[in-house]
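fold description:
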Amino acid sequence: MATCTHCSSPLPADASFCPSCASPVTSNASSPAPAVNSPGTLSGLKTELETPDALSQTTQLAAGSEFHNRYSVQRLLGAGAMGMVYLAEDQLTQRQVALKLINPALVNSPSVAQRFLREGLTARDIRHPNVIAMYDVGDDGGQLYLVMEYLPGDTLRDWLHRFIQNHVDVPFATARSIIVKILEGLTAAHQSGVIHRDLKPENIMLLGDPQHDADYQLKILDFGIARAIDTTSNTQLTSSGAATGTPLYMAPEQRTAADTVGPAADLYAVSMIFYELLMGVPATGILGQPAKERGDIPTAVDSILEKGLSSRPRSRFQSTQDYLTALQALDTAAPQKPEPKSDPRPEPKP
């Protein structure tokens, strides 16, 4: 059965829009490709296998083999057009890591390889509890690779999809908590001069359940990668300086002047995620007003989303701190209506 390329829900035979997330059905919505054990994003935890040919140029490692005279390979975690992800042990530190091998087909010039290494080294310096730790980046005989902390959790996409499947709203307090953690992680990156450029639910990792676990953790993945290797949502290479990121979450200016985007582009993507958490569907076309459609959302949230999703970068929040301040002000605003008392817990992922 065909599945939605946005949320992976099954699609009716003649569907024009996904019944779960309302995304338009594209020509890429098709029957699943042959399955590979595929937890993992670009950084290691949720990659989709698009075609076996996409992996033909990537170094394939056997369990028990050694990579770069340092990493002992344990098993394949995931595979996709961007490359392959392995669970490995760093023999210097004895810790488990996610080893990502980049598909050489995406590295079409020495300048791309140099940019990848430069961006990877910059991202490695970002240290924050809400940002995945990058331990190593390098080139092993022409095979570019990344080494990151291994996170055996769910992506925000997986977590949100369970709410959608069960026709349950994400509680406002939970959605705000998630957005605050994302903004706190982005603060550390922006202070280091790094713009993510490809924020989306697939690049947010959750350790624990934000709705029920007060001490849940959130990690942002893939810093610097969208800039290093220009991609679209289908991981097709574009020309240097062209749009980098996933179109649904991409700020308008990224489509025309990708090399000049600033923090406001990431904050546009944050607002897209916030809207989707509250409404259960992406912000496409005419925006809905979550506060008017749900009783548990403060009225000021509609203004926050309208500002965050402005097509003009100068009209958006200009920093993560500005955005956080607006969210904190909700605590002193007029009391919000009570949340539903007994939302069912989403069924656990099989």
